[in-house]
Design a protein that fits this description.
The complex is a heterodimer of chains A (about 200) and B (about 170).
Chain A lengths: L20 E8 L8 E3 L8 E10 L6 E8 L7 E8 L4 E9 L2 E9 L9 E8 L8 E15 L2 E12 L8 E5 L10 E7 L3
Parallel strand pairs in A: 3-7
Antiparallel strand pairs in A: 1-12, 2-11, 3-8, 3-12, 4-7, 4-11, 5-6, 5-10, 8-9, 9-10
Chain B lengths: L4 E8 L6 E4 L8 E7 L8 E6 L7 E8 L4 E9 L2 E4 L10 E8 L8 E9 L8 E9 L8 E7 L2 E2 L7 E7 L3
Antiparallel strand pairs in B: 1-13, 2-11, 3-8, 3-13, 4-7, 4-11, 5-6, 5-10, 8-9, 9-10, 11-12
Amino acid sequence: MSPLSPLGIYGFAPTAAAGDFESIATVTVGSGGSSSVEFTSIAADWTHLQVRFIARANRATYGADAVKFTFNSDTGSNYAFHCLKGDGSTAAAESGTSETSSRIKDCVGTNNGPGAGNVGVSVLDILDYKNTNKYKTTRALAGVDINGTVAGFGGVVSLNSGLWMSTSAITSIKFEVYTGINFEQYSHFALYGIKGA
Amino acid sequence: MAATYEPIATTTLGSAQASVSFTGISGSFTDLVLIISAGSANTIGFNYVRFNSDSGTNYSATSLSGDGSSATSQRSSNSNKGWLGYWTGIENTIKTMSITHIQNYSNSTTYKSWITRNNNANGSTYSLGTEAAVGLWRSTSAITSMTIYNQTSGTDYNFIAGSTFTLYGIASA
């Protein structure tokens, strides 16, 4: 195997063997769409989690939307996030504190993009998810490109960090489109577990 | 348990070469991960990709980069090749790396998108910094091949000897 770990960090797992990066569950949104995608009953069998997804929503305006996510059904003001993003013309940063969910900026394609098949892509890492001694942190690389601009807005690529101020082990993750609309058919979420030594 | 994250193929250049191709990519995985550690024969080289030999104007990208003093964002539209990154290496040395995620590459229902992270920490005049980018190929075809090029201002340059290109597959349940 490669010296590259599944988290994309060189030197992290120099001799990863089959089974160190395991598929836990996959959700593909069917016809009619879905208001959320949720992974439940996540076992404590791994050290880190990774969610790799493509997503699309039927948004009436703009070519992109954001995803929000919560852990263990906690909708209290226990989340914070930072984001560094570029929209094709401007680099910008934003953040949120005491939020009721964490966030991945503009990673969902919409019907206003370049075609019916357009999706956004994300890789979300959730570190030390079962540790009961510290708050949980996440990072995501995400984006959606729309071949130019829609209503003056271009595609977006973003680097995202998140904090859930809880020492509870994560046993479930729920994803929703930030504006409250449905994920559309063919949106695809895959949850993986990464083992430690 | 079957391996979930598997190497598919690796190319290490024994001599300078204009492009690198991966062909016959099966639909056995969910995502592809492309790792490039390469150098350009030109002072500065840019990486591009074409899927399934498609040279139509079906590619676009949005990037975010920082050079140590400022952050910028750019986009390309209706391109005949897909953007993989600002830098492959400079001054005939390999000082850069690139990790690209090509997700749901084998479905026949969605356009294909990728996200990439690239670094060049050379520290000289041509130190270009760090970059993230998202790319789009407006095709619902399954990706079965890809070719990686090194270009600057439309001129092809060689990847130098020692450049490595590795393709991995990730399979979901």
